[in-house]
Design a protein that fits this description.
The chain has 328 residues and is α+β, with helices and mostly antiparallel strands. The protein contains 9 helices and 14 strands. The protein has a 5-stranded antiparallel beta sheet with strand order 3-4-5-7-8. It has a 3-stranded antiparallel beta sheet with strand order 1-2-11. Strand 4 (49-52) and strand 5 (56-60) form a beta hairpin.
Length: 328
């Protein structure tokens, strides 16, 4: 079955205020470990391939050429089944008891959600992605805050799936481990616009990054979730397909142009507007961007570019956002 969709209400005052249908997905530090850039750190003593991420470590029990294909399709599938896990257990009054760790869905329904052609190729991709998820283990650290006490640091190590998937007549059954299911169901909820499932790699990973920023800002008082800014470097870490350059050659071609193409996709689909800005969320015009100035001959330096901020705003006016305050 497809994920149920929830209408965004204006009182929520977040960047997706105008997008209509959204999916509500459990999100946590642990699950974020498998999104974004991963740096390979070799094979550990248990024979697992070790990767370091911004949130922890990811290990693959059977790391081969197939598993190197881990990409945004795997992330979208994981987000999808986490959504289904939450839907299946939404009736529980006390989380942790009688949790249903099994989710089922039809490949044809997932195909409609993703809006892709080619049933057989999608099925092959799904099976490959589940093979990756089955061989994955996550290590991370959470901080637990208690009233008037110093935060406690807790270390976790969990697998995502307890067994390989079962397929029958176009239906797939997935079994989460009990530990990860309980952890996810006790995690905060974030909202993803429905276009996330159809977006290109860079656009989808940008949407996911913005959804995380919205969720974390909503957990803090007086945080602006209508006009969200982030540095180029922080955004690039959330987009594995764009690698941080080792030198300044071809930055505009391999980083800036690709990033801007993904951001323009969000604007064209009316997900959000964007522009470069300074640290105070003041938009920068094209003439203010240093690589457009005549004196530096269009040469871009990474150590300068990565410190720039990008401002994201809704595509409609709101009481908290003046559409004339940013560049379209």
């Amino acid at each position: 079955m497809l994920p149920t969709k929830n209408k965004v209400r204006h009182k929520q005052n977040n960047i997706w205020i105008h997008t209509g249908d959204v999916s509500r997905v459990r999100n946590s530090v642990g699950s974020n470990s498998v999104y974004g850039s991963m740096d390979y750190k070799g094979i550990n003593t248990n024979g697992e391939a070790k990767f370091i991420t911004r949130h922890g470590f990811v290990f693959f029990a059977d790391f081969n050429e197939q598993l190197k294909k881990y990409n945004v399709t795997t992330q979208k599938l994981l987000t999808f089944i986490i959504k289904l896990l939450n839907d299946n257990n939404s009736h529980l009054k006390v989380l942790g008891k009688n949790v249903n760790t099994i989710v089922k869905f039809l490949i044809s329904d997932y195909q409609k959600l993703r809006k892709v052609e080619g049933y057989r190729s999608l099925k092959e991709q799904i099976l490959n992605d589940f093979e990756i998820l089955f061989n994955m283990r996550i290590d991370w650290q959470d901080l637990i805050y208690e009233w008037r006490k110093q935060p406690k640091s807790i270390n976790y190590s969990m697998r995502i799936l307890s067994s390989k998937i079962n397929t029958s007549r176009g239906e797939i059954a997935v079994n989460f481990t009990t530990e990860i299911a309980n952890y996810l169901l006790n995690s905060p909820i974030m909202e993803l616009p429905s276009y996330y499932w159809q977006a290109s790699d860079i656009a989808a990973q940008t949407i996911f990054k913005l959804a995380i920023l919205c969720r974390t800002k909503q957990n803090k008082q007086h945080q602006d979730t209508i006009r969200i800014d982030t540095t180029i470097q922080d955004l690039i870490h959330a987009i594995p397909s764009i690698k941080e350059p080792k030198d300044d050659r071809h930055i505009k071609r391999y980083v800036i142009n690709r990033l801007e193409k993904g951001l323009e996709e969000l604007k064209e689909k009316k997900i959000c507007n964007w522009c470069y800005c300074d640290a105070n969320k003041n938009p920068l015009s094209n003439n203010q961007l240093y690589w457009n100035k005549q004196d530096n001959k269009n040469y871009v330096r990474w150590n300068m570019y990565k410190q720039l901020h990008i401002l994201f705003t809704p595509t409609i006016d709101t009481k908290k956002c003046n559409s004339n305050s940013f560049i379209n």
